Amino acid sequence: MSILQILHYPDPRLRNVAAPVSTVDDDIRRLVDDMFDTMYDAPGIGLAATQVNVHRRLLVADVSDSRSEPVCLINPVIATSSGADQMEEGCLSLPGVFEAVERANYIEVQAQDQYGQPIELEADGLLAVCIQHEIDHLDGKLFVDYLSQLKRTRIRKKLEKIQKQSS
Ligand code: GNR
Ligand code: NI
Questions:
Q1: 74 near 49, Cβ under 8 Å?
Q2: Is 134 in the active site?
Q3: Among candidates 1, 7, 83, 8, which has minimal Cα distance to 36?
Q4: Residue 102 Cα distances to 42, 96, 106, angstroms
Q5: Which residues of 114-135 are buried (b: 16+ CB within 10 A; e: fewer)?
Q6: Ligand having the closest approach to the CA of 125
Q7: What phi, psi does 133 have (nearest 5°)?
Q8: From CA 56, how far away is CA 13, in angstroms rounded?
């Protein structure tokens, strides 16, 4: 059980594209456990491996109020998506930044679970948004990429200033 360090924008490592997990072994399961600890501790509703500087395709999420519905997706692929909704998003890699982003409101995801078994998941609402946000991380994308250049530059400067003050 350990809390991992989360990378902060504009760290260039957040732009890495994660490689598939080839074998779901004990090392991966340990990483999944640590990612759940880190997500619940933060607290956040999701966490992608990219954010803890592991560039492999896996994510964890729990959008329940009771923090009792853990979801772990390894090598997730969105097979179907439909609809569109705007939602205010935040990100543990951009502390204090909240902006509206439009995404599909229904998705079907194919993945493997923490035992390497194939799973299919249907999601809507917050879970659908969260999974799309996490898969973006695995592709080196951040929610601020959907905003205007001007907004993104303002956010980057604000976060760089805070990081300078705290280092
Ligand atoms: O904790 C988080 N909250 C959140 C709110 C709206 C849309 C997406 C998210 S994900 C975020 C945690 C995080 O940064 N995951 O990558
Ligand atoms: Ni995020």
A1: no
A2: yes
A3: 1
A4: 25, 19, 12
A5: beeeebebebeeebbbbbbbbb
A6: 1
A7: -60, -40
A8: 13
Q: How many CA atoms lie within 13 A of 82 on its CB side?
A: 3
Digitized pLDDT (tens) for each residue of the chain, 167 residues in all: 799 999 999 999 999 999 999 999 999 999 999 999 999 999 999 999 999 999 999 999 999 999 999 999 999 999 999 999 999 999 999 999 999 999 999 999 999 999 999 999 999 999 999 999 999 999 999 999 999 999 999 999 999 998 888 87
Q: Which two tokens stand for residue 110?
A: 């194919």
Which of 88, 102, 134, 160 is the catalytic position? 134
- CB of 136 closer than 6 angstroms to any ligand 1 atom: no
Tokens of 8: 């902060």
CA of 46 to the centre of ligand 1 (A): 6
Q: What is the rounded distance in angstroms from the CA atom of residue 160 to the CA atom of residue 134?
A: 23
Do 42 and 6 meet the contact criterion of CB atoms below 8 Å apart? yes
Rounded to two decimals, the pTM is 0.97
Q: Which two tokens stand for residue 75?
A: 């090598």
